[in-house]
Amino acid sequence: MKRKEYETALEPMREELVAMARWVRVTGQRIVVLFEGRDTAGKGGAIRAVSEKLNPRQCHTVALGTPTEAEQGQWYFQRYAGHLPTAGEIVLFDRSWYNRAGVEKVMGFATDAQVNQFLDQVPVFEKMLVEDGILLFKYWLGADQERQEERLRERLDDPLKRWKLSPIDLAARGKYDAYTEAREEMLRRTHTDWAPWTLVDFNDQKQGRLTLVRDLLDRLPDTRCDPAEIDFPALGREPEAESYGVLKPIENYPIA
Amino acid sequence: MKRKEYETALEPMREELVAMARWVRVTGQRIVVLFEGRDTAGKGGAIRAVSEKLNPRQCHTVALGTPTEAEQGQWYFQRYAGHLPTAGEIVLFDRSWYNRAGVEKVMGFATDAQVNQFLDQVPVFEKMLVEDGILLFKYWLGADQERQEERLRERLDDPLKRWKLSPIDLAARGKYDAYTEAREEMLRRTHTDWAPWTLVDFNDQKQGRLTLVRDLLDRLPDTRCDPAEIDFPALGREPEAESYGVLKPIENYPIA
Amino acid sequence: MKRKEYETALEPMREELVAMARWVRVTGQRIVVLFEGRDTAGKGGAIRAVSEKLNPRQCHTVALGTPTEAEQGQWYFQRYAGHLPTAGEIVLFDRSWYNRAGVEKVMGFATDAQVNQFLDQVPVFEKMLVEDGILLFKYWLGADQERQEERLRERLDDPLKRWKLSPIDLAARGKYDAYTEAREEMLRRTHTDWAPWTLVDFNDQKQGRLTLVRDLLDRLPDTRCDPAEIDFPALGREPEAESYGVLKPIENYPIA
Amino acid sequence: MKRKEYETALEPMREELVAMARWVRVTGQRIVVLFEGRDTAGKGGAIRAVSEKLNPRQCHTVALGTPTEAEQGQWYFQRYAGHLPTAGEIVLFDRSWYNRAGVEKVMGFATDAQVNQFLDQVPVFEKMLVEDGILLFKYWLGADQERQEERLRERLDDPLKRWKLSPIDLAARGKYDAYTEAREEMLRRTHTDWAPWTLVDFNDQKQGRLTLVRDLLDRLPDTRCDPAEIDFPALGREPEAESYGVLKPIENYPIA
Fold first, then answer.
1. Inter-chain contact C129–A75, Cβ cutoff 8 Å?
2. CB neighbours of residue A125 within 10 Å
3. For a surface tag, which of A252, C129, C167, D26 has the fewest beta carbons within 10 Å of its beta carbon?
4. Could you give the ipTM of this predicted complex?
5. Which UniProt keywords apply (chains A, B, C, D) (predicted)?
């Protein structure tokens, strides 16, 4: 998909997202969106498509690292629960509690018993959140292994993306099928009436983002909510120019 | 400045920023950058210019809201201190402890005695951080009142930016001169050898960003640090395509 | 009950508690004990009876204040979940999530719908914790209103206890029956196989403490766990006396 | 010193401590007390003597464990700063930032350069707190090595105290002199006009506690502050006895 097409299609959705955020604030809603999927599928880009025009004090992205030893000894959901939104907030999880059913299962960081118990508990945990009034959305971003390989190669070659190439990514290359299987098991046991999964094809990332954002907006109730009227009288004097005393600005970067 | 010129000039700096972040991680450095300046000067955009290609798990933006009652009763620097980086991290403060010398002073949220004590303590506090090995950079972004008015008006008219228009912004419109005075006093008392201020002209925001990023990179020591070699063998089999069982992806967003 | 009888009876239990804490640490168990009950029943004293000989770095008492506005907007269990123990820890809750079924219900701080939903969710929430391996114990401390009145009066008259007399205590005096009713409803809906309640008569607080501690110890599995052998050789020199240079100790408090 | 003498002498001080806490709350003061000293000197007991009759929601004891790796990479004072009191609170530090000048120095957990920088920064850091209005008190508890040996031996032999015997304690036995030297250096460089040290002889722990509490109370300004009048009308009905339905209390612990 071309950049321009993408921007043209996204632009009106951006306005809807901003209106949605206003509605969330004014009505005290809480929104949680989980972004899961293949390595390199494009979770980060999808999150940015949702959040980039929103107030960063209202819309938080949560991307937790490896649990500390203390966290490993806690109730599994504890460290995620600490990041759930308060009234008026939107929280986007860049990977989430589902780590246990994905990377932890496939890479052997959790035992079968732990994974199994997790899959039993998830519907219960999520039901509690939904009953509490949280609007919960779960997206899984898919891509063919060919795309994954291309994107890993790009991370290797592009100095701007090199940091994205983690040892886990590399170790996971050969486990595409195991991840598929793990995903199917996860869907089988955690796709519920109260917290359904939505799968989005991210073989074309721009199209995937548009698909996801459109779907998210469509799942929300009517979020229209006019902004408050603001009185903006004339300044009533000549605007001042900056005048520096103690210290001067540095030289501007020269335009070629 | 044209978008294209801007992108062309920024591109090589992005690579330098990414290399710098690698150096920070590998050598365990800590970087703190404060972004202060006029309302609407472009702090948010400048922060994004620095952070957008960096690992969000390494480079954190700290944009604190109004202090809670408990925080108001604490040592003034306490809530900021909690966000200082650990080894390997970069923290960008979108407004900072200097609130007390700016908005709190001008809008009367702090007493003269509090502002005065703050200005006395800042050089001492910052010296402790710098002696502890933190690399601290302080930027103040300036713009003429005419620009400020244009940008406030744009926030009013552009639905994507309306949320940026805070009551404080409006109340501050008439206090351009008071902010100038407050800035001069702040510079006089907190522009130190160990933690100097850098003023950047943000009348043209794109040029301002280039100026700021270039300056930041130039202030750092040699941050060259080659990425680790990564072995990326051939996959050794035909790549798999996604095959969905339990649930199918939703329809792609239609390209016009 | 006489102080002396009490001490004599408690002494061996103290050793059992210390042994239990060692077992918790060595085996990585997690223990949660909830202390609920009438105002003035003696929750604080019961908690001290359990914790006073334990390592304060291992055994934590959690006594949360009024929720902040941000906390009020969150999932109800969120702020409690943040205090659950990690492996090797013991957490004693001085009042707990059951606030919603007690004081919040009786004093009208929560709506009927909130209380009702809470009572539905508690068994589910507690089941998750228990399945996760947490050893959960719930005590409710009862006392006749006559005792309650005496103890409130004592708080009023004893300068050491005056701070314990909260406005809520006073407002709750007339609602003894409503608290009884609320407790019955709570027991009916949250006394489960996996997280049963234990009621203890605290009309005599010393006896109540003995009863509670004995019951808690009896509910635990065999916690015998010998302390590690420690080699404690002779010092091999004359012990030094303190010798002060820069500063001398202050005068000792004179013994009459 | 006899238990009885001790209790008799402490009793009136307890009332003064409670009155002091009321004054702290009503006037929004902040109090910080650091407890440092020899291993086994009796820091824990001294802290309990101060805190035992105070509201645990107002008076907090801070006993930090070994720093995590993230904390080790931070500004040294950062993790302590997070525990400083807000208005109306009292914080008792069971060991404090002075760890760096004591155990960390003697046991080699910090480099000479780190210790040296710490000793330079402490007076500056503490001055900031004091200027901010925090009432800061620093106690160092001394005891002869003979006492220390006895108490270590007691920890070994008494099952209730065994957990107190840390490997660090044992390793430190032979370093009594090194600790003395470290203390002298610490006093030389951190006993300032604005944050003076007070040394207390804890060869007799009960007497030491009385000495310390008396000194603390004497250092405070006039803290008289009458409690608010409370209206405590007659109940106006026969008090209810507990009547249990769903569940009965368990059997009382039998008094012999």
1. yes
2. 21
3. C167
4. 0.92
5. Kinase, Transferase
What end-to-end distance do the CA atoms of chain C give, in Å? Answer: 32
D161 touches C21 (CB < 8 A): no
Q: How confident is the model at residue B1 (pLDDT cuts 50, 70, 90)?
A: confident
Among D138, D136, D137, D150, residue whose Cα is nearest residue D41: D150
Dihedral sign for Cα atoms in the order C111, C116, C119, C125? negative
Selected for mutation to probe chain B from A6, A61, A253 (highest B CB count within 10 Å) is A253
Between C230 and C256, name the one with better pLDDT.
C230
Residue C119: list chain A partners with CB under 8 A: none
Unique residue bearing structure tokens 């620097």: B77
H-state helical runs in chain B: 3-27, 43-51, 69-72, 78-81, 103-106, 112-131, 145-157, 167-172, 176-190, 205-219
Nearest CA in chain C to A130: C75
* Ordered domains of chain B (ranges, CATH): 3-219 (3.40.50.300)
Strand order of the β-sheet with A59-62 is A59-62, A90-94, A31-37, A135-142, A197-201
Q: Do D87 and B73 touch (CB under 8 A)?
A: yes
pLDDT, tens only, A65-80: 889 999 999 999 999 9
The per-residue pLDDT for C167 is 82
Residues recorded for chain C: 256
The tokens of A178 are what?
């195991």
Contact B77 D73 (CB under 8 A): no
* pLDDT, position B169: 84
Measured in angstroms, the CA of C57 and the nearest CA of chain A are apart by 13
pLDDT in tens, D199-209: 999 999 999 99
Contact B173 A252 (CB under 8 A): no
Considering only CB atoms, which chain C residues are within 8 Å of D240?
144-145, 176-177, 180
Tokens linked to C112: 């009927």
Q: What's the pLDDT band for B52 if we cut at 50, 70, 90?
A: very high
d(CA C171, CA D245): 25
B31-37, strands of its sheet edge to edge:
B59-62, B90-94, B31-37, B135-142, B197-201
The minimal CB distance from B121 to the residues D86, D121, D131 is found for D131
Chains touching chain C, criterion 3+ CB pairs below 8 Å: A, D
Q: Which pLDDT score, from 0 to 100, does residue B61 have?
A: 96
Residues from chain A contacting residue C86 (CB–CB below 8 Å): 70-74
Q: Would you state the structure tokens that stand for residue B13, as one six-digit string?
A: 């700096």
The residue in chain B having the minimum alpha-carbon distance to the alpha carbon of residue D74 is B86
Strand order in D59-62's β-sheet? D59-62, D90-94, D31-37, D135-142, D197-201
Give CA–CA dist A45/B196, Å, rounded: 36
SS3 D91: strand
pLDDT for the residue numbered D1: 82
Task: Please answer whether residues D167 and D62 qualify as being in contact, where contact means their C-beta atoms are separated by less than 8 angstroms.
Answer: no
DSSP for A172-239, please give it: HGGGHHHHHHHHHHHHHHH--SSS-EEEEE-SSHHHHHHHHHHHHHHHS-----PPPP-------SPP
CA distance C28 to chain A (A): 8
Q: Which of B168, B68, B76, B73 is nearest to B114 (CA)?
A: B76
